[in-house]
Design a protein that fits this description.
383 residues; 15% strand; globular; Butyryl-CoA Dehydrogenase, subunit A, domain 3; four-stranded mixed β-sheet; 3 domains; alpha+beta
Length: 383
């Protein structure tokens, strides 16, 4: 079906991203996976390309573009090439919306220019070793002491945590109340060079191996009061405001991954021969790829509708939950079937389908597990 989501500007941007990937990422991507992250100066290259500042207002040095479509293009082109931009997604899709909505004018002037250039990479630290998705149960504390907060605690599963220069740390600044376990949480934008701040293990993951994920610990870290994001105690409400965009971002990358898997498999079966015939000539191959292409088309249609709704300010948390649940399940089925069409070579990491398979597993976990999303959807339809 003809796609109407993108215009000429988006397609020109797509060509720029595609050329950049071919020149700067694809030739060295295996080295990134072995290291567990891109080299630090790669983020400055992304800054020079302008991708960090697309949605930043012009007065802070950005392009002032409010549409999510440019981020969708990047997701599609990375999937098409079987690569990722490391901590880019967290930096732009997770952290930036918090800075744009809740940072003070002084904070925006201080943080957004280095954010755009890549001189200040960011991450967000919510999850703790003993709490998982139960943010209200977190134990990390930030006690006010004059002009500073004294931060103590630990976080885990922090994407981008190894190379980050600033981390949005969610901490308890006052006790929860019996009426509201979520009260008393605040967000501090912590300088990673602060005394008492340390990066623990770089966690070895099944997939997404070019994206660093770390454990963090804080021992009497002094955080200036002026680095509090928004109001003290309002942290939990802040965390929920960006969930729709975050989940749509995951849905978009999941759809793109499935689409890329179909293309990798299509090319492979046309080249590979079995019993003197190309794999593509067998009816089973044709039927499997037809099934996959159909699922991808459905996922694309849903993603495109949700992107238009997000740009119009109409995407609800339930809409985003539907998109993430559906697209991540499609991704799992399609990538698995396309790997099967590769036979034994699908299990070899030098083939991009193998990386897609490993990377796909986490999408049904992070950003809200599929089980959590079903609960949200069920509530929305009043079940």
């Amino acid at each position: 079906m003809r796609r109407t989501l993108f215009n000429e500007d988006h397609e020109a941007f797509r060509e720029t991203i595609r050329d950049f990937i071919q020149a700067e990422v694809a030739p060295v991507y295996e080295e990134w996976e072995q290291a567990g992250h891109p080299p630090r100066d790669f983020y400055n290259k992304l800054g020079e390309l302008g991708v960090f500042g697309i949605q930043v207002p012009e007065e802070y040095g950005g392009a002032g573009e409010t549409s999510f479509k440019y981020q969708a293009v990047i997701s599609e082109e990375c999937a098409r090439a079987g690569v990722s931009f490391g901590g880019y997604g967290v930096h732009v899709n997770l952290v930036l919306p918090y800075l744009l909505k809740y940072a003070s004018e002084e904070q925006k002037k201080r943080w957004l220019p280095p954010f755009i250039s890549g001189d200040m990479m960011t991450a967000i630290a919510m999850t703790e070793p003993g709490t998982g998705s139960d943010l209200a149960g977190m134990q990390t504390t930030a006690r006010r002491d004059g002009d500073h907060y004294i931060l103590n605690g630990a976080k885990t599963f922090i994407t981008g945590g190894v190379l980050a220069d600033r981390v949005l740390v969610v901490a308890r600044t006052s006790p929860a109340t019996p009426e509201n376990r979520r009260a008393g949480l605040s967000i501090l934008v912590v300088d990673t060079k602060s005394e008492g701040y340390s990066v623990g293990r770089k966690l070895e993951k099944i997939g997404l191996r070019s994206s660093d994920t770390a454990e963090l610990s804080f021992v009497d870290v002094k955080v200036p009061v002026e680095d509090l994001l928004g109001e003290e105690g309002a942290g939990f409400s802040y965390l929920t405001h960006n969930l729709a965009e975050e989940r749509l971002g995951i849905a978009t990358s999941s759809y793109a991954s499935a689409a890329a898997a179909v293309e990798f498999a299509r090319k492979y079966v046309q080249e590979r021969t079995v019993f003197g015939k190309t794999v593509s000539s067998f009816q089973n191959t044709k039927f499997v790829l037809a099934e996959c292409a159909t699922e991808v088309e459905a996922a694309r249609s849903l993603v495109d509708r949700c992107i238009e709704a997000l740009d119009a300010g109409e995407l609800t948390p339930a809409d985003a939950a539907v998109a993430k649940l559906f697209c991540t399940e499609v991704q799992q089925r399609v990538v698995d079937k396309c790997l099967q069409l590769h036979g034994g070579y699908g299990y070899i990491l030098e083939y991009p389908i193998a990386r897609l398979y490993a990377d796909a597993r986490v999408t049904r976990i992070y950003g809200g597990t599929s089980e959590v999303l079903k609960t949200i959807i069920a509530k929305d339809i009043q079940v």
